[in-house]
Specification:
By secondary structure, the chain is mainly α. It has three helices and two strands, in the order H-E-H-E-H.
Length: about 80
């Protein structure tokens, strides 16, 4: 998701009173686990929805240049197959 998409998603969530979440689109191993949401305990779907509202989000955006690692890896894979 690009920066503009994130801003629009945040705007819509605020407009409709929806809780925030966090997601990861890791392109290299080092990115895994860099973003997460810490939630209070919950036992069912309704408590989960409430926990999301209280959750604390940790992490930051990765430098967009990280995508070049994925491109590099695909090129290397193709070269190995040839």
């Amino acid at each position: 998701m690009w920066l503009g998409d994130s801003a629009r998603a945040l705007e819509l969530a605020r407009k409709y009173g929806l809780p925030g979440t966090v997601g990861s689109d890791a392109h290299v191993i080092g990115e895994i686990g860099k973003s997460f949401i810490e939630l209070p305990e919950f036992n069912d779907a309704e408590q989960f929805r409430q926990a999301l509202r209280q959750g604390k989000i940790y992490g930051h955006r990765t430098n967009p240049l990280i995508h070049f690692y994925g491109i590099r890896d695909r090129i290397i894979k193709r070269l190995k197959r040839s």
